[in-house]
């Protein structure tokens, strides 16, 4: 009950749609999509049932809105981390390095999109497709950073291609996120940074 009252107090002045989304984001991410019921979201967001359904006709509609918001906010965080760097090598490494503060802030709960895969097995499902879009955006960003790196020093990186680098990087990144959640420890991310450095022969 204390949790409900705290959430209602914090969200008192927020528009109903945002209150619903804020509540759902917390519940979906920390306790899971299947474990979270619509009635729980309604109760903890402090809205009427009719208000809820006027914004989100189904639970999938609510979850999709949550994932779209998370897609944008998390990609913006990565881009901000990258943009803080000026050297092409550090910019390239920044995507992986951004994982540590992000995971620590989320109490090592991992990636909302990877977690959703376990709950929604159909790859054609629109919730799964949002996760694919998220990782494709990261892949494109890494590809661009890889190309910048190669252009910066073509002699050093003459044996590398931006596509291969981006593909290898994405696999390492996804594995580091998953292992950090499994071990509930940040060491897989630190190891991931070392692996990315090995890809470009940087110590």
Question: Can you walk me through this structure?
Answer:
- Helix 5 runs parallel beside helix 9 and helix 9 crosses helix 10.
- Helix content is 75%, strand content 0%.
- By secondary structure, it is an all-alpha fold.
- It has 11 helices and no strands.
- The relative contact order is 0.11.
- The protein has 2 domains: 54 residues, Orthogonal Bundle (Arc Repressor Mutant, subunit A), CATH 1.10.10; 135 residues, Tetracycline Repressor, domain 2 (Orthogonal Bundle).
In short, what is this structure?
The chain has 203 residues and is mostly helical.
Major beta-sheet overview: none
Query: In DSSP terms, counting alpha (H) and pi (I) runs of 4 or more, how many helices?
Result: 11
Number of strand segments:
0
Helix content: over 70%
Query: How does the overall form come out from the CA principal axes?
Result: elongated
Question: For the residues shown, what is the average pLDDT?
Answer: 92
Determine and state the CATH class of the largest domain.
Mainly Alpha
Low-confidence stretches: 1-9
The CATH architecture of the largest domain = Orthogonal Bundle
Spell out the helices and strands N to C: HHHHHHHHHHH
The radius of gyration over CA amounts to: 19 Å
| CA distance, first residue to last residue | 52 Å
> What structural class do the secondary elements suggest?
mainly alpha
CATH superfamily of the largest domain: Tetracycline Repressor, domain 2
Provide the CATH topology of the largest domain.
Tetracycline Repressor, domain 2
Number of domains: 2
Strand portion: under 5%
